[in-house]
Give the backbone structure.
Amino acid sequence: MPIAYLGPEGTFCEAALRILDPGAERLPCANVTAALEAARGGDAEAAVVPLENSVEGAITVTLDELAWGRPLLITAELLLPVEFSLLVRPGTGLPHIKRVFTHPAALTQCRNYLARQLPDAVLVAAPSTAAAALEVSMPGSPYDAAIGPAIAGEHYGLVELAARIGDRDDTVTRFVRVARPGALPAPTGADRTSLVAFLKDDHPGALLAMLSEFSVRGVNLTRIESRPTGDGIGRYFFHFDAEGHIGDARVGEALSGLHRLCADVRFLGSYPRADRLAPQVRTGTGDAEFSEAAGWLARVRAGEV
């Protein structure tokens, strides 16, 4: 079966899919929602979508879809360097560029280059960088250049007039591969667990109580995002990324504690970290120590101690 992704052809998302699943049949979709629905409905084996960017922050449509749609599990992640190129039709030079077409995020991240090299060009927002490249490649296009990944130029016959024009060299986007619920990836020792937690009621210290479930068990959080529930101002749910695998005792107990506190907890998966960083397990929070403590409690309850 194909793997769905945020299309059209030539997006950074396609580049991420090529790395995560080399050789897989690819199904471009019009937006994140369509890609995830293809995975949910069985038209695709899985979907690859962006989750966060080191400059722009969270991709909120992905966060909301994972929280509210039919359940999906993250099975893998990838940190993809974001390198923008100035793409033009063959024969076009900088003096010929009067109108530039690209996604708003690309305009933001290439601001310095555009101000320096194309100060008089009209900048127009596109639905995606790949859509911009497609439009520029069309005969009679009103746009002279697109900004996007080099892969977009390859797809649509454009020339890379300038490479790596982003304002920062260290920009990355985190992509995730999601699939219908099934067997979890085995623990590797360098894993991440994602989940969504919905407050049972809003009261002083509610968020602190949730965070404490992780803290007292030595579970480090790598990301926290609040999103509105839509039920009124001040009503939020929370996305968490935690170090470790749900198979780890400390992580499993933290999620169990969170489940007791919250109206609902949606588990989004435990999967290998793209950066391969193993967590630092504090004294007293390892699996063996949890097991020993459970054994001690059982003996006490049985009157053996």
